[in-house]
Amino acid sequence: MDGSVEWTQGGDAVAVVVQERQGRTASGTVYLKVLDKAARTKRAGVALAICWGLALGSLPILFFHFFLVPPFGVLGPVMFLVRMKQERFVLGAQVDCPVCEERTQLGKQADGWPLLASCGGCGIRLTIQPPRTDDRGPVDWRLYAAP
């Protein structure tokens, strides 16, 4: 795989260490998207509009409007708050398996570290995190991302 995958565009490349349960390691790259306040507000507003649009759209549907309108009405503000708090997300990743050396790709997901994945070749569980620079544990990944 080359680095020209579509989701790498617009993201900050972060070097990561891939580790399997027995301690073998490999390297990889995670692409992070950093969102400013305007971008977060736009994403949150879209989520709110979709939820409330679905609530309004389900109003004329007999019987179903009793079960669809309240959840969509509540889910809208919840999604708005969740998306406003999300400052970064993972666009994708390309990592090498430390066991079979096959390149594995990850899709878009939340930025909870460490990231977990399964190798497409051997099926082993992989833990993905920023590299360690000292004995105190993993480095804060935000040091590698753009402010």
How is this structure best described in words?
With 147 residues, the protein is of the alpha+beta class. It folds into two domains: 87 residues, no CATH class; 49 residues. Helix content is 29%, strand content 29%. It has two helices and seven strands. Strands 1, 2, 3, 4, 5, 6 and 7 form a seven-stranded antiparallel sheet that branches. A hairpin with a 5-residue loop joins strand 1 and strand 2. Helix 1 runs antiparallel to helix 2. The radius of gyration is 19 Å and the shape is elongated. The two termini are 28 Å apart.
Keywords:
single chain; 147 residues; alpha+beta; 2 helices; 29% helix; elongated
Task: Walk me through the topology.
Layout: E1 12-19, E2 25-34, H1 37-57, H2 65-85, E3 88-96, E4 103-106, E5 109-110, E6 115-118, E7 125-129
Antiparallel strand pairs: 1-2, 1-7, 2-3, 3-4, 3-5, 6-7
Helix pairs in contact: 1-2
The amount of beta strand, in percent, is 25-35%
Runs with pLDDT <50, length 5+?
none
Helix content: 25-40%
Sheet with most strands: 7 strands, antiparallel
User: Pairing-aware structural class of the strands and helices?
Assistant: alpha+beta
The chain-level mean pLDDT equals 79
What's the domain count?
2
Q: How many alpha or pi helices?
A: 2
Shape: elongated
Topology order in helix (H) and strand (E) letters: EEHHEEEEE
Number of strands: 7
Estimated radius of gyration:
19 Å
Question: Cα distance, first to last residue?
Answer: 28 Å
